[in-house]
Amino acid sequence: MDFQVKFKVNEKIYLRDPEISEVGKQMVKIAIDLIYELGFEHFTFKKLAAEINSTEATIYRYFENKHRLLLYILNWYWCYMEFLVIFKLQNVADKKEKLRIIIQLLTHELPESSGQLDYNKKYLNQIVITESSKVYLVKDVTEINKNKVFKPYKDLCAKIAESISAYNPGYKFPRSLSTTLIETSHDQQYFSINLPRLTDAPAKNNSEFTSNFLNDLLFKVLG
Amino acid sequence: MDFQVKFKVNEKIYLRDPEISEVGKQMVKIAIDLIYELGFEHFTFKKLAAEINSTEATIYRYFENKHRLLLYILNWYWCYMEFLVIFKLQNVADKKEKLRIIIQLLTHELPESSGQLDYNKKYLNQIVITESSKVYLVKDVTEINKNKVFKPYKDLCAKIAESISAYNPGYKFPRSLSTTLIETSHDQQYFSINLPRLTDAPAKNNSEFTSNFLNDLLFKVLG
DNA sequence: TCTTTTATAATAGTATTACTATCATAAAGA
DNA sequence: TCTTTATGATAGTAATACTATTATAAAAGA
Questions:
Q1: Full pLDDT tens readout for chain B, 223 residues
Q2: Distance between B54 CA and the closest CA of chain A, angstroms
Q3: What is the rounded CA–CA span in Å between residue A168 and residue B89?
Q4: Residue B160 class from Cβ within 10 Å (0-12 exposed, 13-18 middle, 19+ buried)?
């Protein structure tokens, strides 16, 4: 069986849907490589255009600016993560096991999908860890938020909160705990690689460490 | 009694110590106002120069770039926060009470100090919440880190970890829990104001909410 | 098949940003 | 008093973040 999953990313994020053309697809795929390599601050449309043998003008017809392109990539990630959560929780009855699976997903690289969309999952993972907060820690977040561009993050948060509440219906902060799991999984992985004294992680195996830390935390919090 | 606390910020952060001149002090003070107002991305040395009736060239003689200036501000904050933690924990015997005081400090605005350094504490607090991760989520973090510019954050982390370990010597992740408290206090406050569906917070009183959430979390984790 | 639409490439151009360099002057230190 | 040093004034550069124009090629429609 070979199947492909597609997510319709909110139309407000792009000017023209990159999924419908070859340049568009290349644009997003190579953008992931470049943002990983250069960091978001040093990533520019000019460099991306050169890399895909196209022009800045063409990229601007797809995305208003590089912030929107990053948002597009993260929307794709959040959608895919929510899909994976739903998929992997199928037929799992044990509520504790469900939460364990969620932490496993949050702290490890995305599995390679069989579809054509061969985004580099290792790079995508690093971008989520290093750059994702930059899409909402901006002055005009309220304006941007009006276009529902953070809905996939909110949906993912709500989905995880659901499993939290199922495990412990009396727990008062399911959403906050949910975002704490997501953000902490990024922070701890980032710190363990780049600023290790801010964690108790060993240099190697930071995914495993973060998973252990969050499992311990989550089940102590939920009882 | 009127006393003033001074912190010697790591010399590698600045080119010339802003504390020793009037322009320098103005520079940092007004920078806090401007970064708050514009957000770090739209903050420029040109705008800052205009605001203090000086020139870009002068500011560049103090700070290599705006990233260093933000780092300077955050170093000051981290030093002050560690000082406050030490100060407020003086003569508190109860280990649980110590942790409660730490969370209170992490989730509320800095108290106004009596000294001359009249940085706007409300603005500084918002900058810490919104901009602080941007000083380390950069491609050259390893290079920057070599100059020990994150030492105050690490010291604050270690200090909090100390109280965590004192309360529960068997707990295996004191540093990771420490940074989780710090970062989560930023995240939850930011979300509650800007992306409320990512939290369980009411629109009002986000400091109080975050404090409650973290207290609940911390003592369940530590037992 | 011919025409029309549409996307892209090629190119040019602008305002702003992030700097670096030079020089005169004023203030501080020796 | 002489010298050092910080600042202000000014200029300039390369890169960034766009916008606009036109020619061409390919796809869609009649």
A1: 556 677 788 889 999 999 999 999 999 999 999 999 999 999 999 999 999 999 999 999 999 999 999 999 999 999 999 999 999 999 999 999 999 999 999 999 998 765 656 899 999 999 999 999 999 999 999 999 999 999 999 999 999 999 999 999 999 999 999 999 999 999 999 999 999 999 999 878 889 999 999 999 999 999 9
A2: 26
A3: 34
A4: buried
Contact B179/A197, CB-based, under 8 Å? no
* Chain B neighbors of A180, CB-CB under 8 A: 180, 184, 187-188, 217
Write out chain B residues lying below 8 Å of A139, CB-based: 38-39, 41-42
Q: Which two tokens stand for residue B33?
A: 């106002």
* Cα–Cα distance for residue pair A151/A131, rounded to 1 Å: 18
Long-range contacts of A153-162 (CB under 8 A, 24+ apart): A153/A74, A153/A78, A153/B198, A154/B195, A154/B197, A154/B198, A155/A78, A155/A82, A156/A78, A156/A81, A156/A82, A156/A85, A156/A182, A157/A182, A157/B197, A157/B198, A158/B197, A159/A82, A159/A85, A159/A86, A160/A85, A160/A102
